[in-house]
Amino acid sequence: MHELSLAHGIVEQAAEAAVKAKAERVVSVQLKVGRLAGVEPGALLFCYDLVAKGTPLEGSRLEILDLPLVVWCAHCLKEVELPGVQSFRCPTCGTPCGEIRQGRELEIASLEIEP
Ligand SMILES: [Zn+2]
To answer: What CATH number should be reported for the domain whose range is 2-114?
Structure first.
């Protein structure tokens, strides 16, 4: 299960950061997830709770920051946000856009810790 190994990675990283900050407990983790990251938020939240048990993250909240898909349009010469992942065409001019500027992210944005 993809989300389980993901959850492991997040908890490991966050626990390490908490130790470095000399924190007893992590209150919440904000995670940036792009539309193209292929993450099922419900499954990730479920796995997160499982994996967090017995770590400084037990009982903490995982907040998923959903990042929309942004591509570069070579015709409009600007970054445009796509409404979905089905069509990679500029919503303004219809030009196919393959240069992804945002949407693949899968990283911890911030941690809320309890000193
Ligand atoms: Zn365009």
So the answer is: 3.30.2320.80
